[in-house]
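Hey forum,

I'm writing up a methods section and want to include a predicted complex as supplementary material. The small molecule is zinc ion. I've pasted the protein sequence and the SMILES. Can someone with a working setup run it? I'll credit the forum in the acknowledgements.
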Amino acid sequence: MAKSKTNEPSPSDNSEEAVANVKEEKETKSKKQSEEINGKSNQNDVISNSKKKGAQPTIADMFEKMDKKRKLESGNDSKPQKKTKTEEIKSAINGTSLQATNLPKRCTECRQYLDSPDLKLFQDNPIDAVEEFVMLTDPRLSVFDGDYDTADVTERLQYKITQFSVYDRFTHLCGFDQGLIEKDIEIYFSGYVKPIYSEDPSSEGGVPARNIGPIVEWWVSGFDGGEKALIGFGTAFSEYILMNPSEEYAPFVSAVQEKIYISKAVIELLCENEQATYEDLMNALDTTVPPQGLPTFNEDTLLRHAQFVVDQVQSFDSAADENDLILITAPCMRALISLAGVTLGEK
Ligand SMILES: [Zn+2]
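Reply by user p_vandermeer:
Happy to help. Structure tokens for the complex are below, copy them as they are.
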């Protein structure tokens, strides 16, 4: 398997910078040596570290330092110290406010840059599209043939949605997998709603609906051997299984599908071989044929989506019963977690 190098830092990328770094290091070293002779090495370390990083300490950091100082110092010394610290804080505040005015503006909902050429507006609403509560009463979607006595009213009804687009309340098209739902940002979708048994992804026969939502959750199913991974949206009223996106929304879905299908491949391998090594995993990805329209999987794809893959394996584990093996502890998962620096969530 081709081991990719893209994730390793390559100092040779910018030779000028590399030379400068070496110079700087030499300088610090010689400084350090002379300071050590003078017995001041500790103090110097602190100074050179903060310079090297180039990161400005936050205001919170300053307060923290100030607090410690106060506790340590006697009452006599604290007054002049306080004055200089306040000045530092003032300049820090001025610095950040200046920076903020220079930054391009972001949407308060979807966080996309408002002047970005990638920012797309949803504009494909069919004229006869109806609101969610009107759509839900459409007889074309009724699966009960009027016999409501047999319906389990406690369960949310499931439908399919095709030719869909997802957008925020400013109609900016946006991804549904980017944490917006989790942050309680309201995002909606439009498209053609079909009965759950429908297999036809065209708009024909569907009920055109707009501003369905807000989406309160999204999920994936079909990781354990089903041919397709299904993505679903949940609103306060219903669940919608995704069929095909609209043409303008397709790029957002491809991005999600890539990480979903690589997770599916990983989980399927683990179900077959819970002792799979990282090399086994690479071999499996190499021979996996991704769904139409997606590039082939490699180590880069895996590392790029490592956090999502690990989250999915954990969530798969959490649904396991006591006889099932726990997959997250497989050798290849341990390797992936340490390679990609993934955090194990509480999901
Ligand atoms: Zn927006």
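Some notes you might quote in the supplement: Residues 1-55, 61-84, 91-98 have pLDDT under 50 and may be disordered. The two ends are 32 Å apart (CA to CA).
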